[in-house]
Recover the amino acids of this structure.
């Protein structure tokens, strides 16, 4: 059809459709491979086969250019309903299959973006939009001509003019000018650094000054196209790529590959290679990451150590019902970063110093935080101040937002015009004057109607003869303000600022605050910036204030000055600013920030070689349509933008000399692994283009997909072990997830509040103060415990070893004997050292035994062979060591599954739940005798080893690996006494949660091979 014959469709849109469909096909194929018929997944396999058929039909339609039929088919694809599974094995497989299918369906859904309207309508829009584009070109040419004439008439040039006129001079009539010949003869060599950032105009200038007729020539170019990140300056990496390819065969020049990297440890280089060997190729990144492009370690003197492997730190944004500690994901990521930096410093992480050729403890100046933008710099400053970590924000454009600068700007505003309430109150409340809220209110009472400056003057007139502090402070301030206003009329802004600093001692004050050196530098820089401002054509205090206000209105700002060049502080800078630099330790922040494509939201879009694409607006219907050129150019720009994002990632990773941290966040762990899981399906080393060309993507999605086939992923994502497409690579990494609870345990910040100062002791209400100080909390006994208790603690309180008959713990006993750190626990005496190792090993064996029981497949009766294979898999996945595995009592585990209870567990395996965490509110007076606060509740939490949920009842069981010796009858009584309370709490929790009775409770003593019935 006409649409399929359009060059833009054939060269840009059709290839993207084919790549996306091929990736969807690969994902569904991988999902179908998982749907093993032997595992009773036939229904899922059938649905996936239907999905494959649908995708193959769409591929055929694109191949045959049947775009009209293709458009109709993608509007509502006919997907079959995916079956639901309840058995544990099938359910586990289904949880792997379904995300792959969902990802493939999402890709098919994305194809609609290429066809927002039927093809015939898009052709009609193309015809309608052509005259508009012609008129745009005509207007642009007319404007540029008029603009150029005006500049010439007034004798002015801009930077672009300088370059273009230089090219005109050198080129002459097209064959070169006398000037070009002069410079070609003058320059023996032309050396170009950072050649990957050259644009077409600069390339043309270089052409006319180099010796083009000589072989070899005299131009030497150095660069790395993988670091081309300046497209906003029109840098054209294809210039480098063209020569890189041609010079391989010495066609027009010679290619010299500088493969060795003398900056970084192999840990950093290997990880970078692992990521980019799967991410970068000609389609995305614009150059293959082959053996010639891979990084090679060039500095051999770094000491060998496992401490330098790359660490990925991820924050779970979803908090569930946990108490709010951190406001948003940015703060969460920064808290993780601050904690890690504090740990590096406290633990004296060792850095190799190339100058001294020795290891030394890390310092703050060794660390840099790289950010995609400056947007979060203020948040970084706030978080690091809370942690007491020194920070130097090199390129933070937040200068006018700094508190000390806002205070001085407010003072300048009221010096210019005191009848401005907000700046005036800001100054009065600031440390320069230091009034309290109560004092400000008292001043306002002097004149409730007029401006606050009127109220201030009225208060002064009424109270100027009085000697109390407020009247004296107001008098001093008004005197100083009048003096400064007079100075402002006679002196320059810099002189005025110096006088203010001297008379208020404000510089001395800010030095004593957190980040005092930076605040001092900010205030001094304000003077220097005022000096520069007054050297322009604008002068006067009013104009300077308007300049600052305009900057703030337009969300523009200046960079903070660096406090001192050698300050021992963590540095913050953008990836762009870090290019060409190197740092011992790098934290790459905000890696889950979505890529920014605001340019694509405009009504028009341009691309060299393709022209202009517009969104056509139907004025009658008030509807906006994307035209075919707009669609095609958007896809070309998207691919270029993603390629540059990839190169920015390369720059960021290669800034690290010795240690690299990547920080990001997902909703939860499941959401993160779901975003990465498609990486498991890849057959080739390089990921499918559609997995990389994702408009709403981020760096961590890319990175995660490249890690899925690496053996290290098995430690955090067990499903990765089952895939056969493992990549063997020297890189190593770790992934750590943090949530609110984990951060709350780590964060121990000291919050310093302002001390209240009593100005006038006579004004204090003694009766009110006495009442406040003698206040008694309504629930005093509740303050003796935390708001939650673990079952492992409370189980002992249910069964007092000294009084086996009591069901409630005496309050006095709990208070005096078992209260430790505001939680009720059993008294604990320190164990002798010779017993600690034994206890530690026993705990590890017990934990390992529970892990085996938790993860053992229940589809059939376990055998000695299947149990051994299961334990070996867990050792491979690093759940526990081989030494611990050898000490697991396998005979006791097999014994259990031959008991009546064990047989039921196998028989009703679909209804078995294992290692189930729970939380339950329980009235405190049902636990502690004498607790007379009926409204007080405790949050009890624990983990249930296992239960069987049948239609009309629940069977609860719990394993114990305790050693049991001595008289059997006495041992059984001891076990019942010790654990009855624990199982009773478990039963109550299950009955509340599932609304079913717990008819049977069993305690399984593995060591003694006995099942105790607590029913």
């Amino acid at each position: 059809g006409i649409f399929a014959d359009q060059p833009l469709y054939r060269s840009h849109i059709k290839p993207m459709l084919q790549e996306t469909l091929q990736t969807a096909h690969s994902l569904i194929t991988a999902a179908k491979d998982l749907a093993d018929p032997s595992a009773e997944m036939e229904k899922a396999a059938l649905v996936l086969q239907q999905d494959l058929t649908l995708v193959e039909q769409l591929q055929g339609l694109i191949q045959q250019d049947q775009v009209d039929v293709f458009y109709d088919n993608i509007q509502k694809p006919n997907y079959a309903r995916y079956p639901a599974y309840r058995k544990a094995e099938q359910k586990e497989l289904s949880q792997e299959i379904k995300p792959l299918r969902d990802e493939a369906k999402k890709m098919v859904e994305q194809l609609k973006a290429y066809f927002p309207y039927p093809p015939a309508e898009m052709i009609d829009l193309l015809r309608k939009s052509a005259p508009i584009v012609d008129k745009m070109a005509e207007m642009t040419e007319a404007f540029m001509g008029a603009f150029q004439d005006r500049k010439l008439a007034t004798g002015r040039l801009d930077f672009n003019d300088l370059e273009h006129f230089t090219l005109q001079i050198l080129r002459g009539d097209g064959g070169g000018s006398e000037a070009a010949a002069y410079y070609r003869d003058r320059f023996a060599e032309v050396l170009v650094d950072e050649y990957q950032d050259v644009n077409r105009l600069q390339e043309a200038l270089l052409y006319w000054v180099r010796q083009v007729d000589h072989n070899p020539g005299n131009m030497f170019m150095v660069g790395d196209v993988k670091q081309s990140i300046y497209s906003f300056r029109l840098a054209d990496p294809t210039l480098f790529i063209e020569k890189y390819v041609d010079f391989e065969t010495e066609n027009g020049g010679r290619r010299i590959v500088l493969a060795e990297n003398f900056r970084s440890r192999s840990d950093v280089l290997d990880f970078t290679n692992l990521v980019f060997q799967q991410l970068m190729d000609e389609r995305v990144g614009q150059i293959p990451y082959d053996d010639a492009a891979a990084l090679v370690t060039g500095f051999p003197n770094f000491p060998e150590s496992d401490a330098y492997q790359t660490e990925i730190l991820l924050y779970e944004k979803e908090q569930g019902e946990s108490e709010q500690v951190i406001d948003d994901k940015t703060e969460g990521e920064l808290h993780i970063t601050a904690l890690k930096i504090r740990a590096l410093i406290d633990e004296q992480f060792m850095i190799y110093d190339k100058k001294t050729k020795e290891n030394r403890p890390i310092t703050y100046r060794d660390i840099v935080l790289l950010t995609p933008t400056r947007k979060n710099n203020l948040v970084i400053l706030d978080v690091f101040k809370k942690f007491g970590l020194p920070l130097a924000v090199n390129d933070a454009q937040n200068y006018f937002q700094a508190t000390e600068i806002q205070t001085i700007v407010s003072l300048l505003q009221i010096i210019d015009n005191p009848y401005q309430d907000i700046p005036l109150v800001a100054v009065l409340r600031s440390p320069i004057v230091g009034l309290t809220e109560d004092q400000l209110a008292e001043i306002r009472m002097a004149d409730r109607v007029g401006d606050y400056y009127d109220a201030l003057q009225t208060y002064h007139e009424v109270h100027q003869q009085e000697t109390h502090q407020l009247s004296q402070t107001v008098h001093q301030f008004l005197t100083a303000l009048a003096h400064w206003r007079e100075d402002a009329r006679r002196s320059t802004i810099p002189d005025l600022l110096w006088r203010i600093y001297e008379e208020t001692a404000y510089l001395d004050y800010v030095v004593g605050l957190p980040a005092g050196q930076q605040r001092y530098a900010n205030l001094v820089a304000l003077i220097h910036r005022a000096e520069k401002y007054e050297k322009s054509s604008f002068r006067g205090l009013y104009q300077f204030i308007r300049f600052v206000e305009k900057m703030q209105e337009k969300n523009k700002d200046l960079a903070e000055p660096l406090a001192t060049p050698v300050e021992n502080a963590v540095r913050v800078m953008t990836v762009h600013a870090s290019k060409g630099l190197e740092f011992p330790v790098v934290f790459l922040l905000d890696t889950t920030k979505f890529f920014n494509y605001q340019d694509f939201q405009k009504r028009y879009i341009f691309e060299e070689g393709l022209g202009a694409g517009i969104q056509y607006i139907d004025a009658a219907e008030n509807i906006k349509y994307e035209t075919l050129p707009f669609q095609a150019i958007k896809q070309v720009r998207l691919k270029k933008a993603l390629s540059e994002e990839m190169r920015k990632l390369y720059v960021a990773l290669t800034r690290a000399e010795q240690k690299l941290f990547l920080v990001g966040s997902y909703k939860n762990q499941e959401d993160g692994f779901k975003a990465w899981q498609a990486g498991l399906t890849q057959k080739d080393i390089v990921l499918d283009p559609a997995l990389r060309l994702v408009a709403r993507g981020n760096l961590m999605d890319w990175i995660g997909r490249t890690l899925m086939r690496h053996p290290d992923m098995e430690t955090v994502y067990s499903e990765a072990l089952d895939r056969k497409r493992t990549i063997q690579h020297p890189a190593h990494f770790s992934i750590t997830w943090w949530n609110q609870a984990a951060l709350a345990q780590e964060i121990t910040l000291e919050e310093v509040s302002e001390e209240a100062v009593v100005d006038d002791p006579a004004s204090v209400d003694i009766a009110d103060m006495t009442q406040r100080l003698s206040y008694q909390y309504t629930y005093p006994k509740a303050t003796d415990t935390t708001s939650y208790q673990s079952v492992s603690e409370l189980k002992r309180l249910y069964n007092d070893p000294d009084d086996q008959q009591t069901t409630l713990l005496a309050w006095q006993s709990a208070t005096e004997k078992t209260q430790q750190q505001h939680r009720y626990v059993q008294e604990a005496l320190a164990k002798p050292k010779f017993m600690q190792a034994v206890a530690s090993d026993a705990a590890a064996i017990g934990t390992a035994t529970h892990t085996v029981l938790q993860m053992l497949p229940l589809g059939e009766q376990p055998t000695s062979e299947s149990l051994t294979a299961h334990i070996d898999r867990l050792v491979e996945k690093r759940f526990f060591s081989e030494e611990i595995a050898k000490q697991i009592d396998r005979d006791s585990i097999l014994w259990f599954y031959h008991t009546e209870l064990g047989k039921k567990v196998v028989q009703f395996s679909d209804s078995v739940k294992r290692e189930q965490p729970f939380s339950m509110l329980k009235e405190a007076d049902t636990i502690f005798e004498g607790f007379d606060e009926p409204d007080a509740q405790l949050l009890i939490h624990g983990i249930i080893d296992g239960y069987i949920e049948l239609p009309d009842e629940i069977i609860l069981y719990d394993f114990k690996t305790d050693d049991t010796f001595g008289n059997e009858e006495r041992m059984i009584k001891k076990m019942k006494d010790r654990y009855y309370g624990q199982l009773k709490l478990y039963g109550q929790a299950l009955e509340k949660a599932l609304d079913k009775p717990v008819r049977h409770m069993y305690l399984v003593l593995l060591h003694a091979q006995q099942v105790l019935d607590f029913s």
About this structure: The longest strand covers residues 937-949. Confidence is low (pLDDT under 50) at residues 748-764, 796-831, 833-839. Residues 4 and 64 are 9 Å apart (CA to CA). The chain has five domains: 3-115, 159-258, 310-392+571-740, 399-558, 792-830+899-1013.
